[in-house]
Amino acid sequence: MPHSPLIARTLPALSKALARLRARQSTLALVPTMGALHDGHISLIRLARRRAKRVAVSIFVNPTQFAPHEDLASYPRTWKADLARLVAEGVDLVWNPGADIMYPSGFATRVAVEGPATCGLEDRFRPHFFGGVATVVAKLFTQIRPDVAVFGEKDFQQLKVVARMARDLDLGVKVVGAPIVRERDGLAMSSRNVYLSDAERARATVLHRVLKDTRARMRAGAPFATCLDAGASAIAQAGFALDYLEARHAETLAPVAAMDEAPVRLLVAAKIGTTRLIDNIKV
Q1: Contact 132, 103 (CB under 8 A)
Q2: Catalytic residue among 41, 69, 208, 249
Q3: What would the mean pLDDT of 156-161 be, rounded to a whole number?
Q4: Given CA atoms 18, 178, 173, 60 in this order, what sign does their dihedral have?
Q5: If you ran DSSP here, which 8-state letter would residue 33 be given?
Q6: Residue 249, exposed/middle/buried by CB under 10 A (0-12, 13-18, 19+)?
Q7: Higher pLDDT, 92 or 66
Q8: What angle do CA 20, 58, 120 make, to 5 degrees?
Q9: With contact defined as beta carbons under 8 Å apart, do 218 and 259 qualify?
């Protein structure tokens, strides 16, 4: 039978729990989340289990990565359901701090990130975002001190930002990317998919289809600019407001214009109704 994880909500409780988990020099993997867990998160936990003896999951809806007009207040919070899934997966530790623990009164330090954080993708539309992500992830890494941390490739720019930060600051954490988990019709799993109406959900599959069609044209030798223009038109015709459809270097996220320049990643972000979706694929 699955065992119940240790649950910590204060730093002393976290330290005590970590001492228990580390008693036999066990390796520890961390899966940072904001809760509202779905099968994509479970795939991260299972990958973490393959990489370390013990698995910790953090659940913290981080206010510093939301702009004033974004969905912090309405972001789904499903603690009971989340805990049941974590118990079923045999997670060893759940770190569930409040905002007052992560950002106590007088908190005045932020992590400033450049490189992949300023490449002109998500940062063009959410300039506050990666500073908030880097700050909270740096805190999680120093609080838990995992050997491995697992992040999903759906948030591809975030994955690259976190990996770069961990290397640059010598945090001693190996950052591992996990493949995107999709619904049967190709839609990338996301906690925000619950915001979609039935009609929007039906049209949301266009993003993945356009990514695949664009990749096929690129592999066939069509000019990148032509491929991207055709993809952008298809997304707009489906009723999306497109933020970007870009071909980027898969490591640096610098723009690329041909297949022979670098390993290529196609990335898209677009809004349908009030819901903003992102996706990406390897070319």
Answers
A1: no
A2: 41
A3: 98
A4: negative
A5: E
A6: middle
A7: 92
A8: 140
A9: yes
Q: Are the CB atoms for 194 and 76 separated by under 8 Å?
A: yes
Q: Where in the chain is the domain with CATH 3.40.50.620?
A: 6-178
> ∠ CA(254), CA(256), CA(257), 5° rounding?
160
Give the whole-angstrom CA distance, residue 32 versus residue 161: 14
Query: Rounded mean pLDDT of 53-57?
Result: 97
Instruction: In whole angstroms, give the CA distance from residue 1 to residue 227.
Output: 51
Fold that domain 6-178 belongs to in CATH = Rossmann fold (3.40.50)
Contact between 243 and 270 (Cβ < 8 Å):
yes
Is beta strand 275-282 parallel, antiparallel or unpaired with respect to 264-272? Answer: antiparallel
Q: Which of 5-9, 34-38, 65-69, 115-119 has the lowest mean pLDDT?
A: 65-69
- Is residue 41 among the annotated active site residues? yes
Question: Which part of the chain has CATH 3.30.1300.10?
Answer: 196-276
Whether this model's pTM surpasses 0.85: yes
Q: Is domain 196-276 given the CATH code 3.30.1300.10 in the classification?
A: yes
Rounded to 10°, the helix 129-144/11-21 angle is 50
Whether residue 21 is predicted with pLDDT greater than 90 in this model: the reply is yes
Asked whether residue 2 carries a pLDDT value surpassing 80, the answer given is no
Q: Is the pLDDT at 71 greater than 80, yes or no?
A: no
